[in-house]
Structure formats: C-alpha cells, structure tokens
Amino acid sequence: MTTFLKATAAAAILSIASVTSALAEGHGWKPEGPIKMMIAFAAGGGADTHARLIAEDLQAATGWEIVPEQVTGKGGVNALVALKEMPADGTAIAMVVTESIGYNAAAAKGAGISPSDFTGLTTTAGFQMGVVAKAEKGWTSFEDMIAAAKEGELRFGTMSPKLSDLAYLLGEAHGVEFNIVQVRGGKAVMNGVQAGDMDLGFMAGIQGKGVASGDLVNLASALSEPLKQTPDAPTFADLGVSFNADGYFVFVAPAGMDPAAREALTAAIVESTNSGKANGMITKAFGGPVNIQGAELDALFQSDFEAAGALMEAAQ
Amino acid sequence: MGIWDHVIAGVLAVFQSDPVLGVPLTILMVLGGFLLGITVGATPGLAGPMAMAISLPILISIFGFSNDALLPVLGFLIGIMKGATVGGAVPAILFNTPGTPDAYMTTLDGYPLAQKGEARKALRVAHFASASGDTFSDIVLVVCAPFLAIMVESYLDLPEKTALLILSLAFIASVIGGSVGKGIISMGLGLLAAMVATGEDFYPRLTMGQPSLSEGIPIAAAILGVLILGEVFKALEDIYLDDRSAKAQTGVNVQESKVEFLELRKLFPYIGRSAVIGTCIGALPGIGSTLAATLGYTTAKRRYAIKKSASDPEFGEGAPEGIAATEAANSSVSGANLIPVLSLGIPGNAAAVFLILAMDSIGGFNPGPSVFRLDGGIGDGALNPEMVMAFGLFTTMFVANGFNWTIGGIFMRVVGVMARIPKARLLPIVLLLTLTAIYVQETSMVAVWITIFCGFLGYIMRRVGMSPLPFVIAFILGGNLEATARQAFAATGADPFFLFNSPIALVFILLAIGVVIYSLRSTAR
C-alpha cells in the first residue's frame, strides 16, 4: 500500500513539475528585441540595486536581454512620462513605486499621466515605512516625541510631497506643528537624522540595521499594519491619521499591452523576486517579496490615484 | 577589545585576502584601480569619477554582494580615485585641458612651464606635491576621522551650511580670473544652468517644453563641455587663424630637466600650507577639492609675491610653486574627504559619492557614527566588524599611496612623451574622446549636443576673458545650495532671516560680502 502511495505521490509531483515547467517555457511569448528597463531611482541605492538584481536574474532565467537604464526625478513621474510614449509590446518596462502612479501622477497635472496610461505587472516588495528618530534623543515611544514637540519645534524629515502631507496631518492630530524638511530619498532623511539636522523622519526600510543595533528607534508605523521589525509601534490609524504611507516597488509597462506579454513578463519577474540574488537582497532590506499583480494591482493604482485628492485636501 | 586590535585586524584583512597569483586580492585590486585611474586621469577628456561610475556595476557583478566583496571593490575604487588625482595633472600641464575642475588651476603655471620646454619638471613637481598632499591627508584621516567629523557636524546646522556654500561661491567668483564682475557673471550662468529641471515641483522648470531637458543638464556634459571642448574650440581657432603660432605650439619640447632636491625643498612651504588647507576643506561636508585648489593657489600666490627673487617667473607664467600649491591642495582633499563619508555618510565630492554607492550596494558597511564605536561588536569583547572594515579601507589608501610614490612617478615621466604629439592631431582626438565618454555615460545624443553647446559657451567665455571655473563650481554646488537653503528655511519654521540669526552663519555671510568688496577694490587699484 505504501508503495502504491509513494508511486502516486511521485507521479503527482512529476506531473505538477512537468506542468509548471511547461508553463514556464510555454508562455508562448517572447520579446521582439532587448527589453529596456527604466529605473526611477538614483544609481546605487537600495531600490536601484534590487531592480538591477531582478534584471540580472530575469536575463539568466529567460534568456531575454534586459537593458537597465536610470530615468530618475520627480518621484518616478519622469520615468512614467518616458514610458508612456514607448511601444506596449513588452520591450519597455519601468520600475517605480506605487506612489508614482498614485499621488505623484495626480499631483503632477502638467505631466498628463494617470493609471489608465499603464499596464501594471507586479509589485516586488513593500515599504517598511516607520517614523524614526535617533536613540540618543531619549524618546522610547511616540508620546515621548510628541511631548518634546510641545516643548519646542521639532524638524521632521520626509522624502516626498505625499509624506510631507502625512507628517503635517500627524502633527495636526496631536496638536503640534512640525517643521517639515523635505529631502531627496530615504537615505538623505537618514543622513539628516544621524547628523542632527532633523529630529525625526520617515524611513522606508533603510532604518532596519540602525534599529537592530539600537542607534535608531521606530516610533510609529506609517503603514496600515505594524512594522515587521517593531510590531509594538502604533500605526497611523492608531494615532488618529486616516491616511497611510502603504506602498510598494512596482514594475509597469505602457497601456494596451498584449495579455500574453503581460502574463509572461509578470511571471518572470515574480519568479526572480522569489529566488536567487534578488530574493536575498529583498529579504534583507524590505522584509521579503510582495507580489501584487493583475486586477488587484490595477485596483490598487486606481484607488491610490483617487485617494491623492482627498489627502491633498486634508493637508490644505 | 581595544582600538589596536581593530587596526591590526583591518590591516590583516587587506594583506590576508585570498591570493591571486601569489598577491593578496585586495592589493591587486588597488593596483588595478590605480593603473586605470592614472591612465584615465592622464587622458584628456576622461576623469576619475567617470571611471568609477563605469567600474562600479562591473565590479559588483563580478564580486557580488557578500561582505568579502567590500574591500576588493572599495580598494579598486580608491585606486582609481588616487590614480586619477595624480594623473589629472598630466593633461592640464601638457595640453592645457584639465580633466577635472580641480586641475584647472594646475594649467595656469603648468602649461606655461611645459611651453618653455620644461614639461618633465612640471610633471615631477606635480607628482611630488600631489603624493605629499595625499599622504598627509591620509594620515590626518586615520588620526582624526572619528572625532573631527562629529565636531564639524555639531557646529554646522542647515542655515550655517547654506551660508558656507554661499561663501564658497562668493570666494571662487571673486578670486579666480582677472575681473570680479566677470567671475560673478560666470557663476550666475552656472547657477542658472543648475536650475534647469531641478527643484521640488512635479513639472520640470526652465526646460522650455523640451522633454529631453526634463532630467536636467547632465553634469558631465556641462563640465566637460565648458572645460575641455571650450579649450579645444579656442585652440583649433588659434591654429586656423595663425598657422605660424600653431607650428610654434606643435610639440612641447620635452627635455630631461632634473629637479634637484634643493629645488624641491623650496617648494616645501607651499606644499605644506596647501596640504593643510586641502585637508581642512576636505573635512567639511559637500565643499570639495576645487575650492581647496583655488585657496591653495591664491595663498601661495600671495606668499610668492613677497618671497620670490627678481629672476623667478611670476605666478601664471610657469612658476613651479603654483603647480605644487594647487596639486598639494587638491590631492590632500581626497583623504580628508572620507572623514564626513565614514563618520556621517555624507559625500564631499563626486569620488566620495561612488564610494558611498559601493558601500550601500554591497552592504555590510553602513557609514555613520556607529562605525567608530568600540562596543559595536556582537557580544562583549568582540571586534566591531565595521571598524575593522574602516581600518581595512585606510590600509588600502596607504597601499595606493605606496603605488603613488613609486609607480606614479615613473608613469608621470613616461607620459611626458605624449607632449610630442602635435596639437593639430591631438585636439581632434581629445574632442572625439570627450564626446565618446559623454555618450557612453549618458547614452543619449541629447547629452552630446548639450556638451557641444557648453563647449561654445566655454569658448565664448575664454574669448571675452571670463574664467569658466566659477561656472563649473556654481553648476556643481547649485543644486546643493538650493536644497540646503530650502531645508534650512523649512527647518527654522519658515524664518526668512535664517541666514542672519546664528552667529556662525552671519560670519559666513559677512565674509562672503567682504571677499567680493575686497576683491573689487583691489582690482580697481
């Protein structure tokens, strides 16, 4: 009997394996030339590194030629404007953040882009966005920081207009007014906080090592859920702010893409975020891969884009 | 575990890395980087940061992201940085085409000296001064890195940093070149170019609706265009207009002119001062080597005017002291530059930016105050791995210095031969190399057109007697100045007088106004 069970199990595994491998090989879609991968982040940072590692893994796994290229600036809007004009045959994709297609596209009215101009492929990883301060400040909780803010003005570092709005609303909910200092990129916020130019700030995962070593403290989670590293820190909803900084790194292509191409590209990217070098880096920096795709991703873009107006109005 | 255990562990990490062909890998990488750097630096149209930018992704794809990759990769980059600094004097002296803005001041005396047939002497002086300044700076780095950066940072808040940037711009605009007015115009043009498509808004400003400008003017295009293409255009016109003078310029005479020890000894005071100036400037975050070179040159000029004997050449007419002062100052920035990098993670110049990028990408080393903590290890009595890495890094710098003193000297003497190439043949090659380098870096034809446009701008500036250097510095610092000013304004709760409310910032602003007025009065006289 056991032999029979073993044989059946083996057969089942074999058939699953053959089906999956058939799926992997038999998407029936191949790009017509090299794929241009636009990266909306400065070369060498965490976001750029993870995009380049995915490109490498992707190329090794599929044999498609991937050409990564930096198109930075305006919170991903520059990359999106460039992508919109490209052919939708799978030879042009871009890595941005969900905020680029949501808040930033809504705020950059002159750029003329909206979620309907793009085909979402898949997210790769989520932000671990925390409100972070240096341990030296002596604040162990969010309340300590608010108490200090009532004593004297505090400087709050942010890295995008959306986060500046959130910082303002966070202060408003607690009866304090922060001096909000907007800089370029999470790394710049971290430098500012470390150097004492800012008292606290938003960091999207870069704080992990500092928090682990006790140099930095996660005072709050700017997400709808607690931070993986500091689950006890209150979320923005707990703190009376009805908006949050939930967001993901995401690959997009121009609108009107052939569903077969979309499926093949999505599957290949998902595969590379879950294995190899890219997976190691994503797990280290962002707490593991997150793959939102298809209709769910389309809905996420649309709701982010629409929520932008409400957030801007609330922060007026 | 004491500090010495960390020092020893750091040195061993370099010398006991996996041997390749019997040589420790890290040392081999430093040597490779150094040779690449010196070649790149000595080639008109190429510069160190560019080579670092191209090497970094290649290195990471070879070595991967493990902690073992850190020292070989950083060693290679440091090799390039050091090699390019010393090599950068070669095109400045031989062809009057500085590869980097800091080498511009070297052309002022180096090129006249080369035209007198003493190119080798100029190169030897440059090498000696550069290597001395570099070594001095590295020693200061090792001794002071932990304390100095934290001290500087605690005194300079955002308004003070803004004021310091304004002071550096005012200084450079009024001191360089013959006319304060032209210097300020040149600086203003640089700031204007830096404003294109930058800023916090979601729509790109000042692009006149051109999508190709929406990412701003590429930094390499602006700098190489103004500095190199401008010079090439002017020189080509000179050759066209005056065939005879072209023949006279053809081939700088390279005679074996020995530099006696006595002659070198005369240079010591200049090198010493410049090394101190360069080291101090290097330790300030975000200022960079060009200001150091300028300051070194002008202080030396003042001293030289008093001390020189009647037969010595004036500054600007081929005084070895001018080369020594400039090269010592710009080279001594490179070591001290790592003080803000290691202690705060803030880059002081383009080369430091790539070192930080490498550390960030590979991981395992997070520049910041935690680097120099004795209790940074896991568990009691364990070594702090980041501090070990920092001392490993210092070791690679000293290894690179060793190469600098030995191979660097030989190399500088060898490249003297390049001066025999007639200018009419060389200039087109420089032009081609520069445009190719721009295209490789930016991969867009727009960048090439911008470079050529900036080249014409540089040409016009030279024709009307305006120094292109304030343009270049203002272009580099412009974005930084705007961002810091914005942040200072926000951080002080939208106080419009943020530049005048703290004593340090006020002193900087008064000095900035003072230096312009003083220079105006002294030129009027």
TrEMBL record, chain A:
Q: Where is the signal peptide?
A: 1-24
Gene3D superfamilies per record: Bordetella uptake gene, domain 1, Periplasmic binding protein-like II
Sorted alphabetically, the keyword list is: Signal
Q: Which InterPro entries match?
A: BUG, Bug_dom1
Coiled-coil annotated residue ranges, if any: none
> Do you know which PANTHER family this protein is assigned to?
BLR1237 PROTEIN, TRICARBOXYLATE-BINDING PROTEIN
Q: Which family does the entry's similarity section mention?
A: Belongs to the UPF0065 (bug) family.
This protein is called Tripartite tricarboxylate transporter substrate-binding protein
From TrEMBL, chain B:
One Pfam family name is TctA
Query: What keywords are annotated for this sequence in UniProt?
Result: Membrane, Transmembrane, Transmembrane helix
Instruction: Give the matching InterPro entries.
Output: DUF112_TM
Q: Determine the domain of life of the protein's source.
A: Bacteria
Q: Which residues cross the membrane?
A: 20-40, 46-66, 73-95, 139-156, 163-196, 338-359, 388-412, 424-440, 446-462, 469-485, 497-520
Question: Is the keyword Phosphoprotein in the record?
Answer: no
Q: Which residues form the DUF112 domain?
A: 27-473
UniProt name for this protein: DUF112 domain-containing protein
Write down the species: Sulfitobacter sediminilitoris
